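Running this now, will post back.
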Amino acid sequence: MRKQTLVARLFIVCGVVARVVAFALVCAFAAVSGCSAQSANCVSVRALDYKKGKPLKNLSITIHPSRSWTSDLMTAKTDSIGIAKFCPIEPTSTDFSLSLDGRFFESCSGYTFETKVILNTGYQAHDTRCGTLPFKFSESPKPGELVIMVRHIGWWERNTQWP
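Update: finished.
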């Protein structure tokens, strides 16, 4: 076997370093292009438990960006911090509606919201259905963010309300 020279070792080390640097540059470029590919019409919905103010994980939220209830529905689940992100391809209408996960959750904040206000300044929807909040929500929503309060409907309540 032939012994590796210092130059051969240098090429091996530089090759590995060059691959790592190239991979880091590709990842950075992909992250930047992914952010720029998202339109200014993106809306994130933050769902908080109305009793404790904690984020609701894995809550399925469906938004209806236009007046039509069937053509352009978008559904997403909230992540670990209670946020579901929606980026409609088509231009958004003046307002949009949302619906929650089946019969188990109810929005305390209503179901229809004005798109322009949310995109420009963000919006914390007021509790209009569940009574007074037992906590003080101190964060300000970011532009493009809608904060809603959500109430879990328990088994007893679901099964004692007959149509």
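Helices lie at 6-37, 115-121, 155-160. More later if anyone needs it.
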